[in-house]
Specification:
binds hypoxanthine; 8 helices; 31% helix; Rossmann fold
Length: 285
């Protein structure tokens, strides 16, 4: 193992030890990564312990409006969860390793299910701002991969990516959406490095590549989680139509405004999904 891999192993161990110390007797089974403007979900966690990033070694402080800077662990929808309010994007200058540090620490803490939310631009022509989209698959176009380098303990060299978004969890999500009357599309998410939004030509290219939505997160977190065998589910809020499809220039203000408008539906969907997750130790769903 190279020195840098040793450093990364130590970083993950130090971060997870600091989190574990604050969890006391809590044993989260599920982690929820909250995207732009989705931090509200953390306020619905009861018996909560809040762990600011400044108390976790190696965790950077968020630099983007709409992204919090704490982990919130406790009970949500009758389950033990840990929510990451504020993720680390590569466009902030973080390496793929730092951007996936929280996910890897969750893995060390025994989390087996990862639910991710994100804000994304809509490419599919019938999407509108406010559409919720379950990820069926992704295109990692960030040109980065958090697994480059020595294989970390508990991870695989060549993880299979033929089912990155767990089929059973997606089934639960569809069922909850149907029962609660929530419109839930399903499609392919293209992850780009950012921080610029795309040009219209780039969006046309992504459309031809089979992408239904585009954003700047999620794919590398899912790669790190899959390398540890964690089951993943991800939901995009289509906060705007992508460049060239939208008649108006894109703005972070629009992204935040739409995320805020649909947060009730998204929160209800996630609550229903978590409630139905298979109990730990139970046969797979
Ligand atoms: N492109 C990339 N990322 C995004 C977008 C977009 O249009 N909207 C929200 N995040």
């Amino acid at each position: 193992m190279t020195d840098s891999a040793g450093d990364l192993v130590r970083m993950i161990a130090d971060a997870s030890a600091a989190i574990r110390a604050r969890l006391a007797s809590r044993r989260p089974e599920t982690a929820i990564v909250l995207g732009s403007g989705m931090g509200f979900l953390a306020s619905q966690v009861t018996d909560a312990v809040r762990i600011p990033y400044r108390d976790i070694p190696g965790f950077p402080l968020p630099t983007v409006e709409g992204h919090g800077g704490e982990l919130v662990a406790g009970r949500f929808a009758g389950r033990e969860i840990i929510a990451q309010s504020g993720r680390f994007h590569m466009y902030e200058g973080h390496s793929a390793e730092v951007s996936t540090l929280a996910v890897r620490a969750f893995g060390e803490l025994g989390v087996r299910t990862l639910i991710l939310t994100n804000a994304a631009g809509g490419i599919r022509r019938n999407f509108t701002a406010g559409t919720l989209m379950l990820l069926s698959d992704h295109l990692n176009l960030t040109a980065r991969n958090p697994l480059v380098g020595a294989v970390l303990p508990g991870e695989e060299r060549f993880p299979d990516m033929s089912d990155p978004y767990d089929a059973a969890l997606r089934g639960i999500a569809r069922e909850v959406a149907r029962e609660r009357g929530i419109m839930l599309a399903e499609g392919v998410y293209a992850a780009l490095l950012g921080p610029t939004y795309e040009t219209p030509s780039e969006v046309r290219m992504l459309e031809r590549l089979g992408a239904d939505a585009v954003g700047m997160s999620t794919a590398i977190e899912v790669i790190a989680a899959r390398a540890r065998g964690m089951r993943c589910l991800a939901i995009s809020t289509i906060t705007n139509l992508a460049a060239g499809i939208s008649p108006v220039p894109l703005s972070h203000a629009e992204v935040m405004e739409t995320a805020n408008r649909v947060k009730g539906e998204l929160g209800s969907l996630i609550e229903g999904i978590v409630e139905r997750l298979p109990q730990p130790g139970a046969a797979t769903a």
